[in-house]
Amino acid sequence: MHSSDTTLGRWRGQWALVTGASAGIGAAIAHALAGAGAKLVLTARRQERLDALAAELRGAHAATVEVCRVDLALEHGPEELFAFTQAKTIPVALLVNNAGFGSYGEFRHTPLERLAEMVQVNVGAVVKLTRLYLPQMVERGGGDILVLASTAAFQAVPYMSTYAATKSFDLLFAEGLAQEVSRYGVRVCALCPGATQTEFADVAGRSAARRHGESAADVARVGLKALAAGKSLVVSGLANRLGVVSQRLASRHLVNRVTAVVFRPH
Ligand SMILES: NC(=O)c1ccc[n+]([C@@H]2O[C@H](COP(=O)([O-])OP(=O)(O)OC[C@H]3O[C@@H](n4cnc5c(N)ncnc54)[C@H](OP(=O)(O)O)[C@@H]3O)[C@@H](O)[C@H]2O)c1
Fold this sequence. Notes:
Blueprint: E1 15-19, H1 24-35, E2 39-44, H2 47-61, E3 65-69, H3 77-87, E4 92-97, H4 112-140, E5 143-148, H5 161-181, E6 186-192, E7 196-197, H6 200-204, E8 214-215, H7 216-228, E9 233-235, H8 238-247, H9 252-263
């Protein structure tokens, strides 16, 4: 690994594992990495999508791509993925913890199973995959980990309370770990996008939300560049950065009240 390289060229010829690669930001990260010469392990539940993306990346960039279908909501999903890369002796130099989803609406109406799966995918799998791959990175003297948090990590989001709490976890987890492992040459960065044009809103049941926001490609580039530059946190997009800074000037209570009004279902 060229640890001094602060561009995406850092991952040329290196293996990157991208979770949630079948759509949105994960697929965009896979495109960016393949374009930069990285080798890829793509994972998600939708096999056809992963196969189609793998074929596209092989065709466009002559990329080396492996596909591993795993459901990260299952308790042993992360271990299955780890066993796959171990069996193929793939040294994962970059772990992208991107898979995640939200659910919009009153907490009391959200099915218990969906909430449990959300915590499992957004939090449990992130912790497990990081714990599984980090020791190898330390042994090799370097490695990189990108964690998809969100601007939802900086305050409560009523009607998406569980989702915001999982993203808050992701943010603090990444920032804490970054300090802990930097002395082993391992970099960890929390990427915090705001609204991004992906399938997220449809999956969350908030399709009525305006399809505004950044492109997945822009968010992917911002996250990878920040990680390569050694940052432990990046908020994608100027408006989002201003939002995060300005809400710190207000009381938490006020921010929560305003967020509740914005998110209250019609
Ligand atoms: N879009 C936004 O506005 C936004 C803003 C801030 C942060 N984020 C974060 O960005 C990340 C990516 O979201 P996105 O916007 O790209 O959404 P997306 O288009 O819905 O993609 C989500 C990805 O996660 C995968 N996934 C979901 N459940 C899974 C499971 N049980 N097992 C394995 N993979 C699973 C999906 O694949 P399968 O369905 O094929 O399994 C898909 O590839 C998430 O962590 C999200 O919280 C998104």
